[in-house]
Amino acid sequence: MKEIVLVGGGGHCRACIDVIEQQGLYTIAGIVDVADKRGSSVLGYAVFATDNDLLDLINKYTYFLITLGQIKRSDRRIELFNVIYDNGGKLPAIVSPLAYVSKHTKIGHGTIIMHHALINAGAVIGDNCIVNTKALIEHDVVIRNHCHMATGSIVNGGVVIENGVFVGSGAVIRESILVGRNTTIGCNSTVKQSVSPGSMLR
Fold it and tell me: What pLDDT digit, counting tens, does each position of 94-106 carry?
């Protein structure tokens, strides 16, 4: 199997490891994290490098996944993604075999689709996104880059979600509206009208 390096060693990394193991397409070479975690392990996989080692790792390994979580801001995930992408590293889409993803969808670089997510026909999901456990992305939704659809969130048909948006657990977004970039939608929120960029909805 092809080797993949995981960048970020927290709780989201643990969930990603489980998806990668279930998918069975990659073997995990190791994990990149902060310096004081070097030498530790996550679910049996070594933390073998820090962010400062990324350029060296790109010369040694081909495949990478950003496994740093995203709540509210996406800045650090974007920085890490850009370092890898701009220097020739490959960021494959990772899809749980327990998810349903229509063959009529498009999934971008470095996006992970977690267990029991459902993505319907015509949806387009950009780069470096998280579609978390049991999230529902309906037909013809467009989710741009660096977004996180948290556990159990529902995005109804025809919605457009701009870059860097966080949609909290259990949130529901009404059909055919626009969610502006860098918006945070709190858990269990109901969004019934378009949202301006940078909004905070609770």
Answer: 999 999 999 999 9
The confidence score (pLDDT) of residue 202 equals 86
SS3 call for 87: coil
Q: What is the pLDDT of residue 167?
A: 97
User: Shortest CA distance to 88 belongs to which of 113, 116, 57?
Assistant: 57
Torsion angle defined by CA atoms of residues 25, 27, 30 and 31, in that order, rounded to the nearest 10 degrees: 30
**Could you give the CA distance from residue 152 to residue 135 in angstroms, rounded to a whole number?**
4
Q: Which of 156, 151, 150, 193 is CA-nearest to residue 172? A: 156
Classify residue 39 by burial, with Cβ atoms within 10 Å: 0-12, 13-18, 19+: exposed
Q: How many angstroms separate the CA atoms of 102 and 197, rounded?
A: 29
- At residue 75, the 3 state secondary structure works out as helix
- Region 90-96: mean pLDDT is 98
Name which of 156, 8, 33, 158 is nearest 167 in CA terms. 156
Q: What would the mean pLDDT of 98-125 be, rounded to a whole number? A: 98
